[in-house]
Amino acid sequence: MFYHLLFVYGTLMRGFSAHAFLLDSDFVSYGVLYGARLLHLEDGYPGAVEGEGEIYGEVYRVDSITLKALDLFEEFYEERPEDSFYVRKRKFVRLIPYNDFVEVWVYLLNPVRLEALSFTEVPFGNWKEFLKKLLKM
Fold first, then answer.
1. Is residue 1 classed exposed, middle or buried when 0-12, 13-18 and 19+ CB atoms within 10 A define those classes?
2. Residue 52 belongs to a domain with what CATH number?
3. Closest Cα to residue 95, out of 36, 49, 38, 28?
4. How far apart are CA 116 and CA 1, in angstroms?
5. Could you give the CA distance from residue 36 to residue 75 in angstroms, rounded to a whole number?
6. Domain range holding 51?
7. d(CA 10, CA 16)
8. Structural domains counted in the chain
9. pLDDT tens sequence for the chain (137 residues)
10. Which of 52, 69, 105, 128 is the most exposed place for a label (fewest CB within 10 A)?
């Protein structure tokens, strides 16, 4: 079976609601995605966009079936990316603590959808830490 590396930064991470999709996948490492900004959407989940910044998350080894299931969950339509909520792109992520860069799949917000969304920028690129501070308010 063919496997893919996937970088997750929100509800797919351990301890969050959508992590069930990854229960049969192998955790590889924590990672950092450079050249991206993290947004907390009004609906209560995050989205990443290309730009200056870095995002902290987790890297998993997933099979093709899991990746296709995630495409449906993330509303990514490979044949019609312009209609997608998220687009799946190849990016390089630095693995922590190894300092190696690996190529991964990552779901980014579709730029054409961004102007219609309400969001707060996550200034330090770590959604888990952002939620801790948000919930203490």
1. exposed
2. 3.10.490.10
3. 28
4. 39
5. 20
6. 3-136
7. 8
8. 1
9. 789 999 999 999 999 999 999 999 999 999 999 999 999 999 999 999 999 999 999 999 999 999 999 999 999 999 998 899 999 999 999 999 888 999 999 999 999 888 888 899 998 999 999 998 887 75
10. 52
